[in-house]
């Protein structure tokens, strides 16, 4: 199979920006260095991107700090900030089909998903926070009659947003929209594997009237992220990515200026199917798509399937049938529902987990192999393991690929114990017709999102984030403003008028 014709065709329809965006303009890295940007669809080179270094970090922080101190954005009337952020969303919308192609070229998820989900949700996110600007105010405390206690929110200052490659534009907007809406100046550090949509945002921000220095994009490797996290003039870091890097970032904050840190990290989410499940077909679809959507490169992937022993065989057969039907295809083909892994490294990591599953004695029910190797791209067949013990590596570690580990249980308590036996706590789901069971389980599960008789459904109005080592802080909803603002109390005592 040859996917290179569709890669070439898509490339002819997109604009690629490959320089850092600092102080309102694009520029090469001070060192002149670049790194390769390849598409996982057929392995071909898309462009070379500026590899930011220490000097560029300094320039971006200086530009952001200067714009913040001048109040160029912070001090605009709320109505004006809202107008410009809405304009930013409108420009994103005007380029929506281009952004969808760019995202697919860059990281290999099906264009069906980038068109239908990633890009529309990103635009919606910017609009939601733009609209909130002139609707969220401060508070007056319930103080004594001779006191006016005002509780106001103020922006942190300079905020660095460090994001992963799996939902590049959506994760970027989950951070930058509430950050900008709160009046901060922002430096966005995209993941090396998928920087292209983030880089387009620079010119969109300028066109929307966001003053220079207020929004910057610094492409580069983990060292760029680290330098931002250690910088004494950065007031806050918001991060989505792995738990391992999240922990490093907590350390960087302590080693530098105690900057505010909010983390959204990994997961190993359980989907629990009880024998009294109200709809086995829907549950089987959710079990399969919960881990195969975007090739399993999803933080909330339902990578552990907990099935009640009495229905295990029959239920698993349904899930395996769906998995076998799913064939990896050209992500640029609008009919494709299962695309590429982001890069070769990620593909090898996932294949090594599959190997561990085999070696540990789990039963491979389907998949387990690389696919479409002749294309030069990175593809893995949807994989299901049965007879997985909760102690096995594939049941404990985040694989971040299309690998489902099925574990059986006999009692409600056993299901709860296995579900919570993880260092993560991002999401969990359960399928039951019993109202008592549903409510009790929903409260017992230690996770930031619990789905009952559905999976991965939510919207911008509800908070998203994890318990335990899945992170701190929440994205989405008005609660996200907590991460981008300081609370200030202004206590005014009144004298009796003479
Ligand atoms: P990652 O390796 O942790 O990288 C995330 C970002 O951190 C990238 O921009 C990366 O730059 C940067 N980085 C790397 N080392 C750093 C350091 N020492 N200091 C500061 N920044 C550093 O994660 P990923 O592989 O991109 O993404 C997959 C992970 O993200 C999974 O664990 C997934 O569960 C998690 N995720 C969580 C959520 C959520 O909302 N909870 C959502 C999506 C994804 P480079 O690109 O140069 O490495
Ligand atoms: Mg790429």
Question: TL;DR?
Answer:
The chain is built from 16 helices and 22 strands.
- N-to-C span: 89 Å
The CATH first-level class of the largest domain comes to Alpha Beta
CA radius of gyration is 24 Å
Question: Helicity, in percent?
Answer: 25-40%
CATH superfamily of the largest domain: Aldehyde Dehydrogenase, Chain A, domain 1
For the largest sheet, list the strands in their spatial order. 14-17-18-13-12-19-20
Molecular structure report:
This protein has 498 residues and is α/β, with parallel strands linked by helices. It folds into two domains: 263 residues, Aldehyde Dehydrogenase, Chain A, domain 1 (3-Layer(aba) Sandwich), CATH 3.40.605.10; 190 residues, Aldehyde Dehydrogenase, Chain A, domain 2, CATH 3.40.309.10. 39% of the residues lie in helices and 20% in strands. A seven-stranded mixed sheet has the order 14-17-18-13-12-19-20, sandwiched between helices. Strands 9-8-7-10-11-21 form a six-stranded mixed sheet, with helices on both faces. Strand 15 and strand 16 form a beta hairpin. Helix 4 packs across helix 5. The model has no long low-confidence stretch (mean pLDDT 98).
Tell me the layout of helices and strands:
Elements: H1 4-11, E1 20-22, E2 25-27, E3 34-38, E4 45-50, H2 54-70, H3 78-94, H4 96-107, H5 111-132, E5 139-140, E6 147-155, E7 158-162, H6 168-181, E8 185-189, H7 196-207, E9 215-217, H8 222-230, E10 236-240, H9 243-255, E11 260-264, E12 270-273, H10 280-292, E13 304-308, H11 312-325, H12 344-359, E14 363-366, E15 370-371, E16 379-380, E17 383-386, H13 393-396, E18 403-409, H14 412-420, E19 427-431, H15 435-444, E20 449-452, E21 471-472, H16 481-484, E22 485-493
Parallel strand pairs: 7-8, 7-10, 8-9, 10-11, 12-13, 12-19, 13-18, 17-18, 19-20
Antiparallel strand pairs: 1-2, 3-4, 5-6, 6-22, 11-21, 14-17, 15-16
């Amino acid at each position: 199979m040859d996917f290179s014709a569709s890669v070439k065709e898509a490339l002819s329809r997109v604009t690629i920006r490959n320089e850092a965006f600092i102080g309102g303009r694009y520029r090469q890295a001070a060192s002149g260095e670049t790194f390769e940007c390849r598409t996982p669809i057929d392995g071909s080179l898309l462009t070379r991107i500026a590899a930011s270094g220490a000097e560029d970090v300094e320039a971006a922080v200086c530009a952001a700090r200067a714009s913040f101190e001048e109040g160029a954005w912070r001090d605009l009337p709320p109505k004006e900030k809202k107008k410009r952020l809405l304009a930013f969303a409108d420009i994103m919308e005007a380029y929506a089909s281009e952004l969808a192609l760019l995202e697919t070229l860059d990281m290999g998820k099906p264009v069906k998903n980038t068109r239908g989900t990633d890009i529309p949700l990103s635009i919606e996110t910017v609009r939601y926070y733009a609209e909130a600007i002139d609707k969220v105010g401060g508070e007056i405390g319930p103080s004594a009659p001779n006191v006016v206690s005002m509780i106001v929110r103020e922006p942190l200052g300079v905020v660095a947003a460090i994001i992963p490659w799996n939902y590049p534009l959506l994760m970027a907007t989950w951070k930058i929209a509430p950050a900008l809406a709160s009046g901060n100046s922002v430096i966005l550090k995209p993941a090396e594997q998928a920087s292209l949509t983030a880089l387009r945002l620079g010119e969109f921000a300028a066109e929307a009237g966001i003053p220079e220095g207020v929004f910057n994009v610094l492409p580069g490797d983990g060292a760029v992220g680290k330098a931002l996290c250690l910088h004494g003039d950065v007031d806050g870091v918001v991060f989505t990515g792995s738990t391992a890097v999240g922990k490093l970032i907590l350390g960087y904050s302590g080693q530098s200026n105690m900057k505010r840190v909010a983390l959204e990290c990994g997961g190993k989410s359980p989907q629990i199917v009880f024998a009294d499940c109200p709809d086995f077909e829907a549950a089987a679809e959710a079990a399969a798509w919960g881990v195969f959507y975007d090739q399993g490169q999803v933080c909330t992937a339902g990578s552990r399937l907990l099935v009640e022993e009495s229905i295990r065989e029959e239920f698993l057969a349904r899930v395996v049938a769906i998995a076998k039907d799913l064939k990896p295809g050209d992500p640029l083909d609008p009919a494709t529902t299962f695309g590429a892994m982001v890069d070769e490294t990620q593909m090898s990591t996932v294949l090594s987990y599959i190997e561990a599953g085999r070696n540990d004695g789990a039963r491979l029910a389907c998949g387990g192999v690389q696919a479409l190797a002749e294309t030069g791209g990175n593809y893995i067949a949807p994989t299901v393991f049965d007879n997985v013990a909760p102690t096995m590596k594939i049941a404990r570690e985040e694989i971040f690929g299309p690998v489902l580990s099925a574990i059986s249980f006999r009692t409600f308590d056993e299901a709860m114990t296995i579900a919570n036996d993880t260092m993560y706590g991002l999401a969990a789901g359960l399928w039951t017709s019993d109202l008592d069971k549903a409510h009790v389980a929903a409260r017992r599960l230690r996770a930031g999102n619990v789905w009952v008789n559905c999976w991965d459904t939510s919207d911008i109005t509800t908070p998203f984030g994890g318990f335990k080592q899945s992170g701190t802080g929440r994205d989405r909803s008005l609660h996200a403003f907590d991460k981008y603002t300081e609370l200030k109390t202004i206590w005014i005592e009144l004298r009796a008028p003479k």
